[in-house]
Amino acid sequence: MKKVETKSITGIKNLTRSNIEYILELAEKLEPIVKGESQLQPLKGKKLCTFFYEPSTRTRLSFESAMLSLGGTVISMADAQKTSSVWKGETLKDTIKTIENFADVIALRHFQAGAAEEADSHSRVPIINAGDGPNEHPTQTLLDMLTIKKEKGRLDNLKVAIVGDLKHTRSAHSLTLGLSNFDNIEFVFISPESFKTNQWIKDIVLEKGNTFVESEDLENSIIDVDVIYMCRIQAERIEDPAEFAKIDGLYDLTRKLVDNCTKKPIVLHHLPRVKELSEDVDDYEGAAYFKQTYNGVLVRGALLTMVLDKVPAEYNL
Ligand code: NCD
Questions:
Q1: pLDDT, mean of residues 58-77
Q2: How much distance in Å is there from the Cα of 38 to the middle of ligand 1?
Q3: Ligand 1 binding pocket includes 270 (Cβ within 6 Å)
Q4: Contacts with 130 (C-beta within 8 Å, 6 or more apart), sequence order
């Protein structure tokens, strides 16, 4: 296991298997602090700024919850497009050159692909990508992977269905890239034709020695999978109403469909859900989407601790 040596976390595509294993191990070691069972405060004296240009519930609040649990403090801009100087036309560069004077680390959510990398190039302090447009969502993927590891006991040898708007969903992109670092992963990408996974992501799956199939049919394609990952339609990224109509309401994972599967798959969703995941799945024992939310606190705490170089020596990592 090896910690990430770069200053910032801009995408899963920059992380190795060893980096991912390090972060997940650290996340699990931090759990006693998050639960209040350990008095360690590794981030005492450190400040996080959460700066979000797009809406968020889980990502922003779990970053903040993690920082506070680990002894740090938080300043926050939840609605940068409307209430910061961005509204007056300030550039991302000037915004970052400002915030770096106020905080030791910045969690940035932005509507443009590549924004985290651009911010990193201007920043003295670490940037953690909390979602950059339709591109990547690395912290979501790390919490997804921690959940798979805890619930299935492994990250190798998995058949994983990813379902929905695979073209625009950054969580699906990052999860595919992240899991591609592991061995014997069979992806089943389920989407309508015009919402398929981007070719460059599929190329990486194959380059890393893993496999995928593509299907439009939810019911029959999930029968023998280990993991079902449901995605919300990214309506705000689809301009053409005719395009939207091709996917709106198309998939709905119900308890009946899950009970029909042969390997008791776990069910994940990055949330928020809209129409694609029925509430009757909630009491299925493999429903793990609210566990993902909890694991988000651990993983984001691990990332903050790692980029601030404050990993407690007694963890022996
Ligand atoms: C996702 C996001 O913002 O990319 N939400 C999240 O962070 N859990 C997914 C979504 O908005 O559909």
A1: 98
A2: 31
A3: yes
A4: 50, 52, 56, 59, 60, 63, 107, 108, 109, 137, 139
